[in-house]
Amino acid sequence: MGEESRRVHLADMRIRHLPDIIRIERESFGLPWTETMFLTELGMPRSWTRVAVAPEGTVVGYIVCRKAAGAWHIMDLAVDGSWRRVGVGGRLLDDFLQDVRGDECVLEVRPGNPAARSLYCSRGFVEQSRRPGYYRDTGEDALIMVREKEERADGLLLAVETSCDDTCAALLDLEGRPLAAVSHSQDAVHARYGGVVPEVASRAHVERATVVVKETLRQAGTSMEDVSRVAVTVGPGLIGALLVGVQTAKGLAWARNLPLTPVNHLHGHLASTWLTAPDVSFPALVLVASGGHTMLVKVEGRSDFQLLGETRDDAAGEAFDKGARLLGLGYPGGRELDELAESGEAGSYTFPYGLKGEDTLDFSFSGVKTALYYLLRDMGERERVKKAADVAASYREALVGALVWRLRIAARREDVSSLAVAGGVAANSLLRRRVGELGGELGLRMVLPPLRYCTDNAAMIGAAGLSGPVLWPGEYEGLQPRASVALEAVPGGWGDPK
Ligand code: KG4
Ligand code: ZN
Known about the structure:
By secondary structure, the chain is an alpha/beta fold. Helix content is 37%, strand content 22%. It is built from 16 helices and 17 strands. Helix 14 links the parallel strand 16 and strand 17 (445-447). The protein is elongated, with a radius of gyration of 30 Å.
């Protein structure tokens, strides 16, 4: 048994298969389906059909299923009389069950058809109830057999992040422990333009997304077979870049009938806190400072946050990068400026402090950047080189000082038990030292994520996704990313703004 069935191959049901199907249907059942009934199923978006085709091209078996009210109904399964007992029915059924994974499945079967009953029993179906006099030709009852929805506590979450210029994927277990994470930086691609070129970023994501997912699976020593959920960044970010990740994630989820969770990129940065410290206590005050964002957030729980303040102009990372550019350092430059500043004297120059006298938790970095421009413009070439480290140290002091100033006010004002930093700028060595000191001073638990969780990565998207909304096939096909999204919103998920 089974050897013969290997000679058949499975394919989607097509109209050209119908003559064979109708013949098998008529010889198999007392109340055969008509051609019109098959045609109707073929045109239904939620129907699942497959045929088993013999080497010479004739259809020797088929299955027709349809999803309704959250459960799959196996509506028709038949095998040609001369191909029975060789495993064709089992292959069609297994192919279907594999595809719908843990979904609930229901079917009706005649009590007088022991072969069918035992096939279904062997695949985990149990007889649940009877529908009296269901079969009109014989007046037999129908046995209703059900395969319960599998509550999969096992499985893995695959996360995809492509909101800016890093192509990232990660695998986490369902408790939120990362198993593997791969990021492909595009810094080398954008360096020659001095900034991220959206069109170039989108194209680089297209080239790399699949490879990055594959490499993540390889590093975790697993395959898509073990993935039970997918999460993806849907905004904010560059729209073309986001589209690549969203479409990659949708395709992976849809092909395996998996649920998809849309994730707000900023929720991801916040989640790097509990990715780093799973036992972090809430409320936590988190400073998110990256190339695109600077905000102070009170995090009450893993999906409950409140924006306390944000930048009114440039982001902190942007201020670092523009400073690095004026100083003639590398790209994007924040890290290089930080390194240079380590050997300089921070008190050498004074820079203006954005919104200094104001009672606000907002930030402003445009003034300090302009001041740096004038300072360097008015220096001679030789002095500019000689004093570079001092300038970098003073400039860094101004940026970090402004961040920590507001962080201190917020930490005192809000009743929080932990303090954390996130985003690329959280890699800054002075900021880490200062936040460390602040935590000690205020007696707060402190979370300083490792570098790989500070800059854009998919592990943090997965950590956020585990507490995000779950969309099932049929609900996410039309999911669209958004370039700008409020912190509290998830496009396609909770609080989606109109
Ligand atoms: O979070 P991220 O990877 O991307 C965005 O979402 O923007 O942050 C990147 C930013 C860049 O501006 C980069 O220069 C900055 O983080 N950055 C740093 C350091 N390392 C990265 N800024 C200051 N000091 C660093 N050590
Ligand atoms: Zn980011």
